[in-house]
Amino acid sequence: MGIVEILGIAGSVSLLSGWRLYLCIFATGLAMRFGAWPLPEHLQALQVLANPIVIGIAGLAASVEFLADKVPWIDSAWDMIHTAIRPIGGAVLALALADPSDPTTQVVAFILGGGASLLTHGAKAGTRAAVNTSPEPFSNIALSTTEDVASAGLLWGVYAYPQIAAGVALFILAAAIGLLLVARAVFKRLFGRAETG
To answer: Are the CB atoms for 79 and 125 separated by under 8 Å?
Structure first.
């Protein structure tokens, strides 16, 4: 696996960690456990994710997140709690993917991984808060289910086809920026009405 593929995987996993951190840990651990993603020599630090205990805890946390994310306002409370957790998790995953023999690469991976996770977390939390203003619960469930399917599908794609990982990372980045802009427009419209009313 070349540097472009490794950076693409690191970027994709960091960005997806802002949406579904526990799913990223769970899926990465399973992929390594069952040999779907053989680790290059310099990524052996990630082998801890293949530990059955880590997989089990991440799977349990992913299940709790799956349920919490379907209930309006509980999802926003969950997001608020995870404002610090997701970026740190994304930064650590990116750090584990970086070459340990190059401290500069590790620092850059840690900073960019945390920033990427924070960006997608902000997009998720902002979009959810905007959707929660709707009186019906179905849009929240539909959005959450879309996030679940997209996250799982993109993780699978990145691990199955590392050569597309950089493109996936750019797609997620563009989607996150788009969601932030949509959430901003919704809040501007909502709060603009409140100020004039």
So the answer is: yes
* Average pLDDT estimate for 141-152: 88
| Half-sphere exposure at residue 129, Cβ-oriented, CA atoms within 13 angstroms | 20
What tokens were used for 141? 């469930």
Mean pLDDT of 111-140: 85
Q: Which whole number is the average pLDDT over 134-157?
A: 85
On whether the CB atoms of residues 139 and 11 are closer than 8 A, the answer is no
Helix or strand (DSSP H, E) at 69: none
The b-or-e profile of 59-77 (16+ CB within 10 A means b, else e) is beebeebbeebbbbeebbe
Q: What is the DSSP letter of 161?
A: -
Among candidate residues 3, 20, 28, the one with its CA nearest the CA of residue 123: 20
Q: How far is CA 60 from CA 17, 24, 107, 147, in A?
A: 16, 13, 30, 18
Q: Are 18 and 120 in contact (CB under 8 A)?
A: yes
Across 30-34, 129-133, 189-193, least confident range = 189-193
Among all chains, which residue has been given the structure tokens 């997001």?
A: 79
- Euclidean distance between CA atoms 12 and 188, whole angstroms: 30
Task: Using alpha carbons, list the distances in angstroms from residue 160 to 8, 9, 51, 86, 124.
Answer: 13, 11, 21, 24, 25
